[in-house]
Amino acid sequence: MSLKFLSCNQWVHQLHLESPVSLTTAKGSRIEVGPRFLRLPQNTQHKSLSTSLCFAMDQKIVHEGAFGVSQKDGVIIVDHGSRRKESNLLLNEFVLMFKSKTGYPIVEPAHMELAEPSIKDAFNSCVEQGANRVIISPFFLFPGRHWHQDIPSLADAAALEHPGINYLVTAPLGLHELLVDVVKDRIDYCLSHVAGKVEECAVCAGTGRCKFKVQDSEN
Description:
The chain is α/β, with parallel strands linked by helices. The chain has helices spanning 85-102, 119-128, 145-159, 178-194, and strands spanning 2-6, 12-16, 21-24, 30-33, 37-40, 48-50, 55-56, 73-79, 106-111, 133-138, 166-169. It folds into 2 domains: 2-169, Rossmann fold, CATH 3.40.50.1400; 179-212, no CATH class.
Protein backbone atom coordinates (compact mmCIF):
# COMPACT_ATOMS: atom_id res chain seq x y z
CA MET A 1 0.00 0.00 0.00
CA SER A 2 1.24 3.50 -0.73
CA LEU A 3 -0.02 7.03 -0.30
CA LYS A 4 0.87 10.11 -2.36
CA PHE A 5 0.68 13.66 -1.10
CA LEU A 6 2.23 17.08 -1.63
CA SER A 7 4.69 18.22 1.00
CA CYS A 8 5.60 21.79 1.91
CA ASN A 9 8.69 21.72 -0.31
CA GLN A 10 6.54 20.80 -3.30
CA TRP A 11 7.96 17.35 -3.87
CA VAL A 12 5.48 14.55 -4.42
CA HIS A 13 6.15 11.88 -1.84
CA GLN A 14 5.06 8.27 -2.11
CA LEU A 15 5.03 6.62 1.29
CA HIS A 16 5.44 2.88 1.62
CA LEU A 17 3.37 1.75 4.56
CA GLU A 18 4.01 -2.01 4.46
CA SER A 19 6.44 -2.00 7.38
CA PRO A 20 5.60 0.71 9.94
CA VAL A 21 7.94 0.99 12.90
CA SER A 22 6.98 2.12 16.38
CA LEU A 23 9.08 2.95 19.41
CA THR A 24 8.35 3.12 23.12
CA THR A 25 9.60 6.24 24.88
CA ALA A 26 10.96 6.35 28.40
CA LYS A 27 7.49 7.42 29.57
CA GLY A 28 5.91 4.31 28.07
CA SER A 29 3.94 5.97 25.27
CA ARG A 30 4.14 4.81 21.68
CA ILE A 31 5.34 7.00 18.83
CA GLU A 32 5.34 6.07 15.16
CA VAL A 33 8.39 6.39 12.96
CA GLY A 34 7.56 7.69 9.52
CA PRO A 35 8.38 5.08 6.85
CA ARG A 36 11.09 5.37 4.25
CA PHE A 37 9.65 6.77 1.06
CA LEU A 38 10.42 7.55 -2.55
CA ARG A 39 10.28 11.18 -3.53
CA LEU A 40 9.29 12.11 -7.05
CA PRO A 41 9.94 15.52 -8.61
CA GLN A 42 6.70 16.92 -9.99
CA ASN A 43 5.97 16.16 -13.65
CA THR A 44 8.57 13.43 -13.90
CA GLN A 45 8.59 9.66 -13.71
CA HIS A 46 12.11 9.40 -12.29
CA LYS A 47 12.36 8.25 -8.69
CA SER A 48 15.07 9.01 -6.16
CA LEU A 49 15.28 7.27 -2.84
CA SER A 50 14.86 9.40 0.28
CA THR A 51 15.30 8.41 3.89
CA SER A 52 13.44 11.34 5.42
CA LEU A 53 11.87 10.18 8.67
CA CYS A 54 9.73 11.75 11.34
CA PHE A 55 8.36 10.87 14.73
CA ALA A 56 4.66 11.49 15.28
CA MET A 57 2.33 10.97 18.21
CA ASP A 58 0.04 8.80 16.14
CA GLN A 59 -0.71 7.70 12.59
CA LYS A 60 -3.18 10.53 12.03
CA ILE A 61 -0.33 12.63 10.72
CA VAL A 62 -0.09 10.43 7.60
CA HIS A 63 -3.05 11.55 5.52
CA GLU A 64 -3.77 14.13 2.86
CA GLY A 65 -4.26 17.66 4.13
CA ALA A 66 -2.16 17.18 7.25
CA PHE A 67 0.85 18.97 5.83
CA GLY A 68 1.88 22.61 5.93
CA VAL A 69 2.32 24.86 8.96
CA SER A 70 -0.85 26.67 9.99
CA GLN A 71 -1.41 29.75 12.13
CA LYS A 72 -2.19 27.48 15.07
CA ASP A 73 1.01 25.44 14.81
CA GLY A 74 3.93 26.06 17.11
CA VAL A 75 7.42 25.40 15.75
CA ILE A 76 10.35 24.57 18.02
CA ILE A 77 13.89 24.74 16.62
CA VAL A 78 16.02 22.60 18.93
CA ASP A 79 19.79 22.29 18.97
CA HIS A 80 22.09 20.37 21.29
CA GLY A 81 22.83 23.23 23.68
CA SER A 82 26.20 24.44 24.92
CA ARG A 83 27.88 25.71 28.06
CA ARG A 84 29.14 28.54 25.86
CA LYS A 85 26.62 31.36 26.02
CA GLU A 86 27.61 32.78 22.63
CA SER A 87 26.79 29.49 20.93
CA ASN A 88 23.32 29.39 22.47
CA LEU A 89 22.63 32.97 21.44
CA LEU A 90 23.25 32.03 17.81
CA LEU A 91 20.19 29.78 17.94
CA ASN A 92 18.11 32.77 19.02
CA GLU A 93 19.42 34.67 16.00
CA PHE A 94 18.56 31.78 13.70
CA VAL A 95 15.02 31.53 15.10
CA LEU A 96 14.48 35.24 14.43
CA MET A 97 15.71 34.74 10.85
CA PHE A 98 13.52 31.67 10.41
CA LYS A 99 10.43 33.40 11.76
CA SER A 100 11.01 36.45 9.57
CA LYS A 101 11.56 34.40 6.41
CA THR A 102 8.68 31.95 6.91
CA GLY A 103 6.11 34.22 8.53
CA TYR A 104 5.23 31.46 11.00
CA PRO A 105 3.65 33.20 14.00
CA ILE A 106 4.79 30.81 16.76
CA VAL A 107 8.47 29.84 16.67
CA GLU A 108 10.55 29.10 19.74
CA PRO A 109 14.18 28.11 20.34
CA ALA A 110 15.10 25.18 22.58
CA HIS A 111 18.23 23.39 23.70
CA MET A 112 18.22 19.65 24.22
CA GLU A 113 20.55 19.97 27.23
CA LEU A 114 23.08 22.20 29.01
CA ALA A 115 21.12 25.44 28.55
CA GLU A 116 17.69 27.00 28.69
CA PRO A 117 15.08 27.20 27.29
CA SER A 118 14.50 23.46 27.29
CA ILE A 119 12.19 21.57 24.95
CA LYS A 120 9.63 21.59 27.77
CA ASP A 121 9.93 25.37 28.16
CA ALA A 122 9.51 25.92 24.42
CA PHE A 123 6.56 23.50 24.24
CA ASN A 124 4.83 25.34 27.08
CA SER A 125 5.45 28.67 25.37
CA CYS A 126 3.95 27.45 22.11
CA VAL A 127 0.78 26.27 23.86
CA GLU A 128 0.53 29.52 25.82
CA GLN A 129 0.59 31.38 22.50
CA GLY A 130 -2.35 29.34 21.24
CA ALA A 131 -0.72 26.47 19.40
CA ASN A 132 -2.87 23.36 19.01
CA ARG A 133 -0.06 21.38 17.33
CA VAL A 134 3.67 21.54 17.95
CA ILE A 135 6.34 20.77 15.35
CA ILE A 136 9.78 20.12 16.81
CA SER A 137 12.54 20.57 14.25
CA PRO A 138 15.97 19.26 15.31
CA PHE A 139 18.74 21.63 14.24
CA PHE A 140 21.04 18.64 13.79
CA LEU A 141 22.79 17.33 10.72
CA PHE A 142 22.23 13.59 10.96
CA PRO A 143 19.94 11.13 12.80
CA GLY A 144 22.09 9.99 15.71
CA ARG A 145 21.10 8.98 19.22
CA HIS A 146 19.78 12.43 20.11
CA TRP A 147 17.27 12.26 17.26
CA HIS A 148 16.40 8.60 17.72
CA GLN A 149 16.03 8.66 21.52
CA ASP A 150 16.69 11.84 23.48
CA ILE A 151 14.60 14.42 21.66
CA PRO A 152 11.52 12.16 21.28
CA SER A 153 11.72 11.29 24.97
CA LEU A 154 11.97 14.96 26.02
CA ALA A 155 9.15 15.89 23.65
CA ASP A 156 6.98 13.13 25.07
CA ALA A 157 7.58 14.38 28.61
CA ALA A 158 6.74 17.96 27.59
CA ALA A 159 3.54 16.88 25.82
CA LEU A 160 2.24 15.02 28.86
CA GLU A 161 1.39 18.37 30.44
CA HIS A 162 -0.77 19.33 27.45
CA PRO A 163 -3.38 16.64 26.68
CA GLY A 164 -4.87 16.99 23.22
CA ILE A 165 -1.87 18.81 21.75
CA ASN A 166 -0.41 16.64 19.00
CA TYR A 167 3.27 16.98 18.26
CA LEU A 168 5.75 15.96 15.62
CA VAL A 169 9.53 15.57 15.67
CA THR A 170 10.73 16.17 12.13
CA ALA A 171 13.76 14.77 10.37
CA PRO A 172 17.13 16.42 11.01
CA LEU A 173 18.74 18.47 8.24
CA GLY A 174 20.29 15.38 6.69
CA LEU A 175 21.23 15.01 3.05
CA HIS A 176 19.34 18.04 1.80
CA GLU A 177 20.78 19.41 -1.41
CA LEU A 178 20.46 23.01 -0.18
CA LEU A 179 23.13 22.17 2.41
CA VAL A 180 25.59 21.90 -0.47
CA ASP A 181 25.01 25.60 -1.12
CA VAL A 182 25.38 26.43 2.56
CA VAL A 183 28.69 24.59 2.91
CA LYS A 184 30.03 26.10 -0.31
CA ASP A 185 29.01 29.58 0.84
CA ARG A 186 30.82 29.09 4.16
CA ILE A 187 33.99 27.95 2.41
CA ASP A 188 33.91 30.81 -0.10
CA TYR A 189 33.27 33.42 2.60
CA CYS A 190 36.05 32.18 4.87
CA LEU A 191 38.51 32.17 1.98
CA SER A 192 37.45 35.73 1.17
CA HIS A 193 38.10 36.71 4.78
CA VAL A 194 41.54 35.10 4.72
CA ALA A 195 42.26 37.14 1.56
CA GLY A 196 41.26 40.31 3.40
CA LYS A 197 38.23 41.02 1.26
CA VAL A 198 35.49 40.68 3.90
CA GLU A 199 35.09 40.93 7.67
CA GLU A 200 34.68 37.90 9.90
CA CYS A 201 31.24 36.29 9.72
CA ALA A 202 28.86 36.36 12.69
CA VAL A 203 29.95 32.88 13.74
CA CYS A 204 33.69 33.62 13.81
CA ALA A 205 33.48 37.27 14.87
CA GLY A 206 36.03 38.09 17.55
CA THR A 207 37.59 34.63 17.62
CA GLY A 208 40.33 35.16 15.06
CA ARG A 209 40.00 31.51 14.10
CA CYS A 210 39.24 31.98 10.43
CA LYS A 211 42.81 31.81 9.15
CA PHE A 212 45.18 29.27 7.69
CA LYS A 213 47.48 27.40 10.05
CA VAL A 214 50.93 27.85 8.55
CA GLN A 215 53.19 24.81 8.78
CA ASP A 216 56.85 24.53 7.98
CA SER A 217 57.50 22.71 4.76
CA GLU A 218 59.84 19.75 4.83
CA ASN A 219 63.36 20.34 3.54
